[in-house]
Amino acid sequence: CRNSLTNGMFSLLFSHLGIGYTVGNLTSKPDRDVLMQDFYVVESVFLPSEGSNLTPAHHYPDFRFKTYAPLAFRYFRDLFGIKPDDYLYSLVNEPLIELTNPGASGSLFYLTSDDEFIIKTVQHKEAKFLQRLLPGYYMNLNQNPRTLLPKFYGLYCIQSGGINIRLVVMNNVLPRSVKMHYKYDLKGSTYKRRASRKEREKSCPTYKDLDFQDMHEEGLYFDTETYNNLMKTLQRDCRVLESFKIMDYSLLLGVHVLDQSQRDGGEPGQAGGDGRRPVGQRVLYSTAMESIQGDGKAAEALTTDDTMGGIPAKTHKEEKLLIFLGIIDILQSYRFIKKLEHSWKALVYDGDSVSVHRPGFYASRFLKFMSTRVFRKNQRKCAGSASSHTHTHTHTHTRFEEAHMQKKSKQRDGAAMGSRKSCLDKKSHSVGVFYCVLLGTCVSLLHY
């Protein structure tokens, strides 16, 4: 987005005023059950620079602030134990932190100083899709508040000078108070699922599926109960997403290596952090461990100083880990453009390997990848002696590891190129048919 920085600063300045007004105004409305029509309410307030009987004066251009489904989102915040004063303080009274976005969406991300909330700019179609999603989302949260799906706390729009900026407030998956030694965006696909060179050069890069297979070839190990709870949660969430015809979502996965933190001289679970409290002390069901707990045990037993809300895990070398995770980017539906994108990529590449796919297939592939390649249970003892566990690497990425990863990357890339070439040879005769179908569809749309 050419004006992304300008729009980002614009949205931050004006959202403080708008959210402050709308949340404060909402406290005067009595609590009641959420009705179907509440999901479609849009409240709008005009905030002139000189102020009005309802709004304070400010030093910015006149703007209009819209709040979508205010009563419904208040219900969601209440469900997660978020008090109005805390919500307002997090978003308005403390400076926000801009985050880098490795994706191609062009969205801007901001984190509140207390680590509780993410503010994301969304496109018009994503905001409309979230509005349509709200009734089903409400029913799902009532039945299952323990979920890895995003927790949405508010949807807003700022209008000024012909510019519309839409903001969604949601939970933060990866706390800054815990150093993430690895960070992954996983879809379960292989086509173009490797971090770019530019991304790898960052201090904390976000890797992708093929990178994960190179760096954690044996996967991440959990005890049986934790693994079963995690997979049940993922299966339930994927069924919900499939029912809404949602695809192209990801699992955001953060890995904190406890052993490495101790070697670096930090406290367990806190190395590299900034000494602030762990995420999730105020917001219920917001930590990774709370999100997968299946039997409703006391939440205070889950979020401890030792785990910081993360899920205990190990590598095949018995390295102790804390896992932080959540499903992200669920505002993509399998509509005409996505169907067209999949049809084209399926002709040129292996259709099963591309990320864009029909929701049912996407969910099945996603779950298979997570349950067999990423997460595993009943770890086998390593063949090496006990000394092999004590002589660990001083740094996460040694020269040997980098060379090994590069070698495996070349092998995978070579295999992928061979697969794509074979796919091209087999499917090239279908390209003409595809263009005919595409032309016919476009003509039909024009006539329509």
UniProtKB/TrEMBL annotation:
<dbReference type="InterPro" id="IPR023610">
    <property type="entry name" value="PInositol-4/5-P-5/4-kinase"/>
</dbReference>
<feature type="signal peptide">
    <location>
        <begin position="1"/>
        <end position="24"/>
    </location>
</feature>
<keyword id="KW-0963">Cytoplasm</keyword>
<dbReference type="InterPro" id="IPR027483">
    <property type="entry name" value="PInositol-4-P-4/5-kinase_C_sf"/>
</dbReference>
<keyword id="KW-0808">Transferase</keyword>
<dbReference type="Pfam" id="PF01504">
    <property type="entry name" value="PIP5K"/>
</dbReference>
<keyword id="KW-0547">Nucleotide-binding</keyword>
<protein>
    <submittedName>
        <fullName>Phosphatidylinositol-4-phosphate 5-kinase, type I, beta b</fullName>
    </submittedName>
</protein>
<keyword id="KW-0732">Signal</keyword>
<feature type="region of interest" description="Disordered">
    <location>
        <begin position="382"/>
        <end position="418"/>
    </location>
</feature>
<keyword id="KW-0067">ATP-binding</keyword>
<dbReference type="InterPro" id="IPR002498">
    <property type="entry name" value="PInositol-4-P-4/5-kinase_core"/>
</dbReference>
<dbReference type="GO" id="GO:0005737">
    <property type="term" value="C:cytoplasm"/>
</dbReference>
<dbReference type="GO" id="GO:0046854">
    <property type="term" value="P:phosphatidylinositol phosphate biosynthetic process"/>
</dbReference>
<keyword id="KW-0418">Kinase</keyword>
<dbReference type="GO" id="GO:0005524">
    <property type="term" value="F:ATP binding"/>
</dbReference>
<dbReference type="GO" id="GO:0016308">
    <property type="term" value="F:1-phosphatidylinositol-4-phosphate 5-kinase activity"/>
</dbReference>
<dbReference type="GO" id="GO:0005886">
    <property type="term" value="C:plasma membrane"/>
</dbReference>
<feature type="domain" description="PIPK">
    <location>
        <begin position="2"/>
        <end position="374"/>
    </location>
</feature>
<dbReference type="InterPro" id="IPR027484">
    <property type="entry name" value="PInositol-4-P-5-kinase_N"/>
</dbReference>
